[in-house]
Amino acid sequence: MKKSWQIGGAFVGLIVGAGFASGQEIMQYFTSFGLYGIVGGIVATIAFAFLGMSLAQLGTDLQTTSHKEVIYHIGGRYIGVILDIVITFFLFGVAVVMFAGAGSTFQQMFDINPMIGSIFMMLITILTLLLNVKNIINIIALVTPYLMGIIFIILIYSIFTMDLTIAEQNALAKEQTSAASNWLMGALLYVSYNIAAGAAMLIVMGGTVKERKVAGIGGMLGGLMLGVLIILINIAMFVKMDVVGGVAMPTLELAKQIHPVVGVLMSIALLGMMYNTAVGMFYAFTVRFIAPEHKYFKLGIVVIGLLGFAASLVGFTTLVGKVYSTMGYLGFALIIAVVMSWLRKPKDLS
Fold this sequence. Notes:
With 350 residues, the protein is mostly helical.
Protein backbone atom coordinates (compact mmCIF):
# COMPACT_ATOMS: atom_id res chain seq x y z
CA MET A 1 0.00 0.00 0.00
CA LYS A 2 2.95 2.31 0.65
CA LYS A 3 3.96 2.06 -3.01
CA SER A 4 0.38 2.82 -4.10
CA TRP A 5 0.33 5.99 -1.99
CA GLN A 6 3.71 6.93 -3.40
CA ILE A 7 2.47 6.58 -6.98
CA GLY A 8 -0.73 8.47 -6.11
CA GLY A 9 1.21 11.29 -4.45
CA ALA A 10 3.60 11.54 -7.38
CA PHE A 11 0.67 11.61 -9.82
CA VAL A 12 -0.83 14.55 -7.93
CA GLY A 13 2.59 16.22 -7.82
CA LEU A 14 2.90 15.94 -11.59
CA ILE A 15 -0.53 17.37 -12.40
CA VAL A 16 -0.72 20.07 -9.71
CA GLY A 17 1.63 22.46 -11.42
CA ALA A 18 1.65 26.21 -11.70
CA GLY A 19 -1.85 26.75 -13.06
CA PHE A 20 -3.58 24.18 -10.82
CA ALA A 21 -2.13 25.09 -7.42
CA SER A 22 -2.18 28.83 -8.16
CA GLY A 23 -5.90 28.61 -8.92
CA GLN A 24 -5.53 30.06 -12.43
CA GLU A 25 -6.55 26.84 -14.20
CA ILE A 26 -9.36 26.10 -11.73
CA MET A 27 -10.64 29.65 -12.23
CA GLN A 28 -10.82 29.29 -16.01
CA TYR A 29 -12.16 25.72 -16.17
CA PHE A 30 -14.42 25.53 -13.07
CA THR A 31 -14.98 28.65 -10.93
CA SER A 32 -15.89 30.88 -13.88
CA PHE A 33 -19.06 28.78 -14.30
CA GLY A 34 -20.28 29.69 -10.82
CA LEU A 35 -21.97 26.99 -8.75
CA TYR A 36 -21.92 24.58 -11.71
CA GLY A 37 -18.13 24.56 -11.34
CA ILE A 38 -18.53 22.37 -8.21
CA VAL A 39 -20.49 19.80 -10.24
CA GLY A 40 -17.71 19.98 -12.82
CA GLY A 41 -15.21 19.20 -10.04
CA ILE A 42 -17.11 16.02 -9.15
CA VAL A 43 -17.14 14.90 -12.80
CA ALA A 44 -13.38 15.58 -13.03
CA THR A 45 -12.73 13.56 -9.84
CA ILE A 46 -14.41 10.44 -11.25
CA ALA A 47 -12.61 10.78 -14.59
CA PHE A 48 -9.18 11.34 -13.00
CA ALA A 49 -9.58 8.28 -10.73
CA PHE A 50 -10.55 5.97 -13.60
CA LEU A 51 -7.91 7.22 -16.06
CA GLY A 52 -5.18 7.28 -13.41
CA MET A 53 -5.89 3.64 -12.54
CA SER A 54 -5.97 2.55 -16.19
CA LEU A 55 -2.74 4.28 -17.25
CA ALA A 56 -0.73 3.10 -14.23
CA GLN A 57 -1.86 -0.48 -14.90
CA LEU A 58 -0.86 -0.22 -18.56
CA GLY A 59 2.62 0.85 -17.45
CA THR A 60 2.85 -2.21 -15.19
CA ASP A 61 1.50 -4.56 -17.86
CA LEU A 62 4.18 -3.53 -20.36
CA GLN A 63 6.98 -2.74 -17.84
CA THR A 64 8.00 0.24 -19.93
CA THR A 65 10.49 3.08 -19.32
CA SER A 66 8.85 5.40 -21.88
CA HIS A 67 5.24 6.19 -22.80
CA LYS A 68 5.86 5.21 -26.44
CA GLU A 69 5.24 1.46 -26.02
CA VAL A 70 1.97 1.94 -24.15
CA ILE A 71 0.65 4.55 -26.58
CA TYR A 72 1.29 2.31 -29.59
CA HIS A 73 -0.19 -0.62 -27.63
CA ILE A 74 -3.52 1.15 -27.00
CA GLY A 75 -3.67 3.21 -30.20
CA GLY A 76 -2.31 0.82 -32.80
CA ARG A 77 0.09 1.64 -35.59
CA TYR A 78 -1.78 4.67 -36.98
CA ILE A 79 -3.65 6.24 -34.05
CA GLY A 80 -0.59 5.50 -31.89
CA VAL A 81 1.54 7.82 -34.03
CA ILE A 82 -0.93 10.70 -33.55
CA LEU A 83 -1.21 10.11 -29.79
CA ASP A 84 2.57 9.89 -29.47
CA ILE A 85 3.05 13.25 -31.21
CA VAL A 86 0.27 14.91 -29.17
CA ILE A 87 1.57 13.65 -25.82
CA THR A 88 5.17 14.53 -26.64
CA PHE A 89 4.09 18.06 -27.54
CA PHE A 90 2.05 18.29 -24.32
CA LEU A 91 5.03 17.31 -22.18
CA PHE A 92 7.14 20.17 -23.49
CA GLY A 93 4.26 22.67 -23.42
CA VAL A 94 3.34 22.00 -19.78
CA ALA A 95 6.95 22.20 -18.64
CA VAL A 96 7.22 25.59 -20.35
CA VAL A 97 4.13 26.78 -18.43
CA MET A 98 5.86 25.77 -15.18
CA PHE A 99 8.84 27.99 -15.98
CA ALA A 100 6.51 30.91 -16.72
CA GLY A 101 4.53 30.19 -13.53
CA ALA A 102 7.69 30.35 -11.41
CA GLY A 103 8.34 33.79 -12.89
CA SER A 104 4.82 34.97 -11.98
CA THR A 105 5.18 33.65 -8.41
CA PHE A 106 8.47 35.47 -7.86
CA GLN A 107 6.94 38.67 -9.22
CA GLN A 108 3.64 38.55 -7.27
CA MET A 109 5.07 37.42 -3.93
CA PHE A 110 8.56 38.91 -3.82
CA ASP A 111 8.32 41.70 -6.45
CA ILE A 112 11.26 40.18 -8.35
CA ASN A 113 11.73 40.25 -12.12
CA PRO A 114 9.78 37.20 -13.44
CA MET A 115 12.71 36.17 -15.63
CA ILE A 116 14.76 35.43 -12.50
CA GLY A 117 12.06 33.04 -11.25
CA SER A 118 11.95 31.28 -14.61
CA ILE A 119 15.75 30.92 -14.72
CA PHE A 120 15.74 29.53 -11.14
CA MET A 121 13.10 26.91 -12.05
CA MET A 122 14.96 25.95 -15.21
CA LEU A 123 18.24 25.39 -13.33
CA ILE A 124 16.84 23.22 -10.51
CA THR A 125 14.82 21.20 -13.04
CA ILE A 126 17.92 20.44 -15.10
CA LEU A 127 19.94 19.53 -12.00
CA THR A 128 17.24 17.18 -10.69
CA LEU A 129 16.97 15.34 -13.99
CA LEU A 130 20.48 14.03 -13.51
CA LEU A 131 18.98 11.69 -10.84
CA ASN A 132 17.36 8.34 -11.70
CA VAL A 133 13.61 7.96 -12.15
CA LYS A 134 12.91 6.32 -8.76
CA ASN A 135 14.56 9.23 -6.95
CA ILE A 136 12.49 11.63 -9.02
CA ILE A 137 9.24 9.85 -8.05
CA ASN A 138 10.21 10.05 -4.35
CA ILE A 139 10.93 13.79 -4.58
CA ILE A 140 7.70 14.55 -6.46
CA ALA A 141 5.52 12.62 -3.97
CA LEU A 142 6.89 14.53 -0.94
CA VAL A 143 5.39 17.92 -1.82
CA THR A 144 1.77 16.71 -2.22
CA PRO A 145 0.69 16.47 1.48
CA TYR A 146 2.30 19.86 2.19
CA LEU A 147 0.28 21.52 -0.57
CA MET A 148 -2.98 19.86 0.51
CA GLY A 149 -2.48 21.18 4.06
CA ILE A 150 -1.94 24.76 2.85
CA ILE A 151 -4.97 24.60 0.52
CA PHE A 152 -7.17 23.34 3.38
CA ILE A 153 -6.11 26.30 5.59
CA ILE A 154 -6.96 28.72 2.76
CA LEU A 155 -10.36 27.05 2.26
CA ILE A 156 -11.34 27.36 5.94
CA TYR A 157 -10.22 31.00 6.01
CA SER A 158 -12.13 31.82 2.82
CA ILE A 159 -15.42 30.30 4.02
CA PHE A 160 -15.34 32.06 7.39
CA THR A 161 -14.39 35.48 5.99
CA MET A 162 -16.78 35.58 3.02
CA ASP A 163 -18.11 39.14 2.64
CA LEU A 164 -20.70 38.74 -0.14
CA THR A 165 -23.70 36.44 -0.52
CA ILE A 166 -23.52 33.22 -2.57
CA ALA A 167 -25.65 34.88 -5.28
CA GLU A 168 -23.31 37.88 -5.47
CA GLN A 169 -20.21 35.68 -5.62
CA ASN A 170 -21.89 33.56 -8.29
CA ALA A 171 -22.51 36.65 -10.43
CA LEU A 172 -18.88 37.79 -10.04
CA ALA A 173 -17.60 34.30 -10.87
CA LYS A 174 -19.47 34.27 -14.17
CA GLU A 175 -17.75 37.53 -15.15
CA GLN A 176 -14.34 35.80 -15.13
CA THR A 177 -12.69 34.53 -18.31
CA SER A 178 -13.63 30.92 -19.09
CA ALA A 179 -11.53 28.48 -21.11
CA ALA A 180 -14.58 26.51 -22.30
CA SER A 181 -18.13 27.11 -23.51
CA ASN A 182 -19.88 25.44 -20.53
CA TRP A 183 -19.14 23.77 -17.18
CA LEU A 184 -19.20 20.18 -18.49
CA MET A 185 -16.86 20.93 -21.38
CA GLY A 186 -14.63 22.82 -18.93
CA ALA A 187 -14.37 19.77 -16.66
CA LEU A 188 -13.75 17.37 -19.56
CA LEU A 189 -11.16 19.64 -21.18
CA TYR A 190 -9.39 20.01 -17.85
CA VAL A 191 -9.18 16.25 -17.35
CA SER A 192 -8.21 15.74 -20.98
CA TYR A 193 -5.18 18.01 -21.10
CA ASN A 194 -3.97 17.06 -17.63
CA ILE A 195 -4.17 13.34 -18.42
CA ALA A 196 -2.51 13.92 -21.79
CA ALA A 197 0.29 15.79 -20.04
CA GLY A 198 0.58 13.43 -17.05
CA ALA A 199 0.03 10.14 -18.90
CA ALA A 200 3.64 9.67 -19.96
CA MET A 201 5.12 9.96 -16.46
CA LEU A 202 2.24 7.97 -14.90
CA ILE A 203 2.93 5.16 -17.37
CA VAL A 204 6.64 5.28 -16.47
CA MET A 205 5.76 5.16 -12.74
CA GLY A 206 3.49 2.17 -13.36
CA GLY A 207 6.41 0.48 -15.08
CA THR A 208 8.50 0.69 -11.87
CA VAL A 209 6.23 -1.81 -10.04
CA LYS A 210 5.43 -5.45 -10.84
CA GLU A 211 1.96 -5.75 -9.26
CA ARG A 212 -0.95 -4.54 -11.39
CA LYS A 213 -3.14 -4.00 -8.32
CA VAL A 214 -0.56 -1.77 -6.60
CA ALA A 215 -0.20 0.41 -9.72
CA GLY A 216 -3.97 0.60 -10.27
CA ILE A 217 -4.73 1.63 -6.69
CA GLY A 218 -1.93 4.20 -6.86
CA GLY A 219 -3.36 5.77 -10.01
CA MET A 220 -6.88 5.77 -8.54
CA LEU A 221 -5.74 7.37 -5.27
CA GLY A 222 -3.91 10.05 -7.21
CA GLY A 223 -7.03 10.79 -9.25
CA LEU A 224 -9.21 11.05 -6.14
CA MET A 225 -6.73 13.40 -4.43
CA LEU A 226 -6.64 15.57 -7.55
CA GLY A 227 -10.42 15.77 -7.54
CA VAL A 228 -10.57 16.76 -3.87
CA LEU A 229 -8.00 19.51 -4.49
CA ILE A 230 -9.99 20.83 -7.47
CA ILE A 231 -13.17 21.04 -5.40
CA LEU A 232 -11.42 22.65 -2.38
CA ILE A 233 -9.61 25.28 -4.45
CA ASN A 234 -12.76 25.95 -6.46
CA ILE A 235 -14.88 26.59 -3.32
CA ALA A 236 -12.14 28.71 -1.70
CA MET A 237 -11.97 31.00 -4.73
CA PHE A 238 -15.73 31.07 -5.31
CA VAL A 239 -16.52 32.41 -1.83
CA LYS A 240 -13.81 35.10 -2.19
CA MET A 241 -14.46 36.04 -5.80
CA ASP A 242 -14.50 39.72 -4.86
CA VAL A 243 -10.84 39.32 -3.82
CA VAL A 244 -9.37 36.98 -6.45
CA GLY A 245 -11.17 38.09 -9.62
CA GLY A 246 -8.63 39.00 -12.31
CA VAL A 247 -5.58 37.99 -10.22
CA ALA A 248 -2.87 35.84 -11.91
CA MET A 249 -2.27 33.70 -8.78
CA PRO A 250 -5.62 33.56 -6.89
CA THR A 251 -4.67 31.08 -4.14
CA LEU A 252 -1.50 33.03 -3.43
CA GLU A 253 -3.58 36.20 -3.04
CA LEU A 254 -5.85 34.44 -0.50
CA ALA A 255 -2.84 33.10 1.40
CA LYS A 256 -1.33 36.59 1.64
CA GLN A 257 -4.62 37.89 3.07
CA ILE A 258 -4.50 35.40 5.94
CA HIS A 259 -0.96 36.39 6.96
CA PRO A 260 2.29 37.24 5.14
CA VAL A 261 3.84 34.05 6.55
CA VAL A 262 1.04 31.94 5.03
CA GLY A 263 1.69 33.78 1.76
CA VAL A 264 5.34 32.75 1.87
CA LEU A 265 4.37 29.14 2.71
CA MET A 266 1.96 29.10 -0.23
CA SER A 267 4.66 30.52 -2.51
CA ILE A 268 6.95 27.68 -1.47
CA ALA A 269 4.14 25.17 -2.11
CA LEU A 270 3.49 26.68 -5.54
CA LEU A 271 7.15 26.62 -6.50
CA GLY A 272 7.38 23.04 -5.23
CA MET A 273 4.48 21.92 -7.41
CA MET A 274 5.81 23.77 -10.45
CA TYR A 275 9.15 22.10 -9.86
CA ASN A 276 7.48 18.68 -9.59
CA THR A 277 5.60 19.14 -12.83
CA ALA A 278 8.55 20.60 -14.74
CA VAL A 279 10.79 17.71 -13.65
CA GLY A 280 8.21 15.04 -14.54
CA MET A 281 7.34 16.55 -17.90
CA PHE A 282 10.89 17.23 -19.05
CA TYR A 283 12.02 13.76 -17.95
CA ALA A 284 9.21 12.03 -19.86
CA PHE A 285 9.81 14.30 -22.88
CA THR A 286 13.53 13.59 -22.97
CA VAL A 287 13.31 9.79 -22.51
CA ARG A 288 10.93 9.71 -25.49
CA PHE A 289 13.95 10.59 -27.66
CA ILE A 290 17.03 9.63 -25.64
CA ALA A 291 17.35 6.62 -23.29
CA PRO A 292 18.38 7.61 -19.72
CA GLU A 293 21.58 5.55 -19.97
CA HIS A 294 22.60 7.10 -23.32
CA LYS A 295 25.76 9.24 -23.29
CA TYR A 296 23.87 12.22 -24.77
CA PHE A 297 20.99 12.12 -22.24
CA LYS A 298 22.48 14.80 -19.97
CA LEU A 299 23.30 17.06 -22.89
CA GLY A 300 19.73 16.60 -24.17
CA ILE A 301 18.34 17.66 -20.78
CA VAL A 302 20.35 20.91 -20.85
CA VAL A 303 19.38 21.79 -24.43
CA ILE A 304 15.68 21.04 -23.89
CA GLY A 305 15.70 23.00 -20.61
CA LEU A 306 17.13 26.07 -22.34
CA LEU A 307 14.56 25.81 -25.15
CA GLY A 308 11.80 25.56 -22.54
CA PHE A 309 13.03 28.70 -20.80
CA ALA A 310 13.02 30.63 -24.09
CA ALA A 311 9.44 29.53 -24.80
CA SER A 312 8.30 30.50 -21.26
CA LEU A 313 8.92 34.20 -21.96
CA VAL A 314 5.47 34.36 -23.64
CA GLY A 315 3.85 34.73 -20.17
CA PHE A 316 2.02 32.57 -17.63
CA THR A 317 -1.66 33.53 -17.96
CA THR A 318 -1.46 33.56 -21.77
CA LEU A 319 0.07 30.06 -21.80
CA VAL A 320 -2.53 28.66 -19.40
CA GLY A 321 -5.44 29.99 -21.47
CA LYS A 322 -4.17 29.19 -24.97
CA VAL A 323 -1.82 26.19 -24.78
CA TYR A 324 -3.89 24.17 -22.31
CA SER A 325 -7.25 24.52 -24.06
CA THR A 326 -5.73 23.43 -27.39
CA MET A 327 -4.09 20.47 -25.65
CA GLY A 328 -7.41 19.56 -24.04
CA TYR A 329 -9.26 19.04 -27.31
CA LEU A 330 -6.42 16.94 -28.72
CA GLY A 331 -6.24 14.91 -25.50
CA PHE A 332 -9.74 13.49 -26.00
CA ALA A 333 -8.20 11.05 -28.49
CA LEU A 334 -6.01 9.64 -25.70
CA ILE A 335 -8.95 9.29 -23.31
CA ILE A 336 -10.97 7.39 -25.94
CA ALA A 337 -8.01 5.06 -26.57
CA VAL A 338 -7.56 4.40 -22.82
CA VAL A 339 -11.29 3.66 -22.37
CA MET A 340 -11.27 1.29 -25.36
CA SER A 341 -8.20 -0.47 -23.96
CA TRP A 342 -9.88 -0.83 -20.53
CA LEU A 343 -13.02 -2.30 -22.10
CA ARG A 344 -10.87 -5.03 -23.68
CA LYS A 345 -9.27 -5.90 -20.31
CA PRO A 346 -10.57 -7.69 -17.17
CA LYS A 347 -12.49 -5.16 -15.04
CA ASP A 348 -10.79 -5.85 -11.67
CA LEU A 349 -7.67 -4.31 -10.12
CA SER A 350 -5.80 -7.59 -9.78
